[in-house]
Amino acid sequence: MRLRARPIGSLKGRARPPGDKSISHRALIMGALARGRTEVEGLLEADDVLCTAAAARQFGAIVEKTGESAWRVEGAGGFKQPGETIECGNSGTAARLLIGAASGYKLSARFDGDKSLRKRPMNRVIAPLSQMGARFDAPQSKLPLIVHGGGLKGIVYRSPVSSAQVKSAVLLAGLQAEGETVLIEPERSRDHTERMLKVFGAHCDQVEIDGALHPRVRPSTLTGARVYVPADPSSAAFLIAAALITKNSEVCVEDVLVNPLRLGFFETLLEMGAKLRYEERRDPIGEPIANIIASTSDLIGVAPPPRRAPSMIDEFPILAVTAAFAQGETRVVGAAELRVKESDRITLMVDGLKACGVDAEELPDGLIVRGNGRKSVRGGATIRTMGDHRVAMSFLVLGLAAKEPVIVDEAEMINTSFPGFARCMAALGADISEVV
Ligand code: S3P
């Protein structure tokens, strides 16, 4: 399916994007590991998370939908031997977290994914989990692979990458390992696993090593819990960027997760001169929530510091689009991880921007976009997304503010993270429709 975004007047109104993807995966996985009942409110019912729900069932949990975005998990108190391959679809988070959790149990599980996920590196979890004692049949260090779990020992693991998926895989395995497990990463990545482990009653705290705090787990039995899932800031990012770059716009995005380790994109927007503010901050669930209000802004180019990359890792595609509407140069470095996401996001974003008449350039670990202000972008291209949901949404946002419409291919992949994206945008005044 192809979608076309046409230039529009303005975006106005309020929207509540679907639930946070990271928290949704974790709620289902921890619910399945736990003893007793877990009730999840606001679960993201997107393809990626539905893969995790199906996997949780295969590992022995009862998982059922009880209402709109409401799900119940009856955990089996640990993972059981699955009957068939665990299909992770497009989701790196599903694959890596589930491989970590499964490693803790005496079972053998085969994991597979779609053609994008089969290309993504799995050695980043195979290496630490092997050190802990898990065994792998993974000739290419990619999916499909088989993990043989059980008999783990805790380790102190210095991860070469700042990745919440790696961290979470190791910590989840650590729940079943002898002794303690500590994860050290170059920069802190999102900490939803650590926060939620505490909600499920696990022994999870922080330990000081070399003057910094790092997460640590000890063997734990989880107990079912209630989880509320706020709106995903990575989905809110598209609505906010669209409001900033279209004329006469003001949009309030409600109930957004504002965990500080997820706010790098919004910090960067503020440095670009964005009219952006947080309202009604609250913290009912151990994760902070707020409304974010954004309005049309005259933006300037920026160079976000490399250490900020983990806190905006999924927002670089929409940052690249936003930068095309800013005045001056935006330079992203220290973001080589973008090359191993659902697609090579550096190449795809630069190619797409150039096709839309934007001055953009690839760097080995980032990109440069030279913008000429809000009214300067031509658009008028058909964008190759290679099935990457965030590339697709980014260019649809570009099409709303460009001079000519933009078409994206493989738009059905948007359902992996933001089902109802086109409808949500349309409710604010956007013109996004299927090309027939
Ligand atoms: C995620 C972590 C990030 C992010 C992904 C979700 C998570 O990946 O890109 O969309 O839920 O842990 P990395 O941890 O590999 O950077």
Task: Please describe what this structure looks like.
With 436 residues, this protein is of the alpha+beta class. The protein folds into two domains: 2-19 and 231-435, Enolpyruvate transferase domain (UDP-n-acetylglucosamine1-carboxyvinyl-transferase, Chain); 21-228, Enolpyruvate transferase domain (UDP-n-acetylglucosamine1-carboxyvinyl-transferase, Chain, Alpha-beta prism), CATH 3.65.10.10. The chain contains twelve helices and 23 strands. It has a four-stranded mixed β-sheet with strand order 21-22-1-23. The protein is globular, with a radius of gyration of 21 Å. The N and C termini lie close together (8 Å). The mean pLDDT is 97. Bound molecules: shikimate-3-phosphate. Shikimate-3-phosphate is lined by residues 22, 25, 93, 163-165, 168, 189-190, 313-314, 337.
Explain the layout of strands and helices:
Layout: E1 3-6, E2 12-15, H1 21-33, E3 35-41, H2 47-58, E4 62-67, E5 70-76, E6 86-87, H3 92-103, E7 108-112, H4 123-132, E8 135-137, E9 145-148, E10 156-158, H5 164-174, E11 181-184, H6 192-199, E12 204-209, E13 212-217, E14 226-228, H7 233-245, E15 250-257, H8 264-271, E16 275-282, E17 289-295, H9 316-324, E18 327-332, H10 345-355, E19 359-363, E20 366-372, E21 382-383, H11 389-401, E22 406-408, H12 421-427, E23 431-434
Parallel strand pairs: 2-15, 3-14, 6-7, 10-11, 21-22
Antiparallel strand pairs: 1-22, 1-23, 3-5, 4-5, 7-9, 8-9, 11-13, 12-13, 15-17, 16-17, 18-20, 19-20
Helix pairs in contact: 1-2, 1-3, 1-6, 2-3, 3-5, 4-5, 7-9, 7-11, 9-10, 9-11
